[in-house]
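Protein modeling request. Please complete all fields; requests missing the sequence field cannot be processed.
Requester role: graduate student
Desired output: 3D structure, token encoding
Chains: 1
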Amino acid sequence: MREAILASVQALALFPEIGRQQSIAGVRKLATRRYPFLIYYVLDREADEIAVLTIRHAARGREYTDI
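Delivered output (67 residues):
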């Protein structure tokens, strides 16, 4: 399970816009392969950084709905 999350984060480092844009400005979501986890992150282009906000299991209730 950890390996699937790590592989997704590594792909995110190579392709930072791979995640889908969310309704909250600047927040993107990436779904992991094989296991149902969602990685929410923001991309700071000026600082050339990606900040992971949270990693949640897809079955858990979400406070916000996706677009």
